[in-house]
Design goal:
Blueprint: E1 8-13, E2 21-26, H1 29-47, H2 58-67, E3 70-77, E4 82-86, H3 88-103
Helix pairs in contact: 1-3
């Protein structure tokens, strides 16, 4: 099983308010990265309700992730039978790789 096919929990806090904490459960890392992109696209639609087509580049996605109070991922590792934590930088790199694969 490759490292992409591991159960992933995405932890997110949208504001400084601890009550804005939420988690998302994904079967694989690529599905989690899809989820990050979908959250960002949903936010873009909320901010631009009159636009039919919204385009963005990777720096816009990075800015979105950076502006979140917190975002991290827990990815299951069968070697240690536990979840390993990953930070925003890891998420941004993985999201970029995911989008790059989709564009090909």
């Amino acid at each position: 099983m490759g490292s992409d096919n591991r159960h992933t929990i995405l932890l997110m806090q949208t504001t400084q308010n601890k009550e804005s904490r939420i988690f998302y459960d994904y079967e694989t890392v690529p599905l989690a990265m899809d989820g990050v992109c979908q959250m960002f696209e949903k936010k873009l639609k909320e901010l631009n309700p009159t636009l039919k087509n919204i385009t963005y580049d990777i720096t816009d996605l990075y800015t979105y992730v950076d502006k979140l109070a917190d975002m991290s991922a827990l990815v299951f590792s069968p070697q240690v039978n536990a979840y390993l934590p990953y930070n925003k930088e890891w998420i941004k790199k993985r999201a970029f790789g995911h989008l790059k694969k989709q564009a090909q």
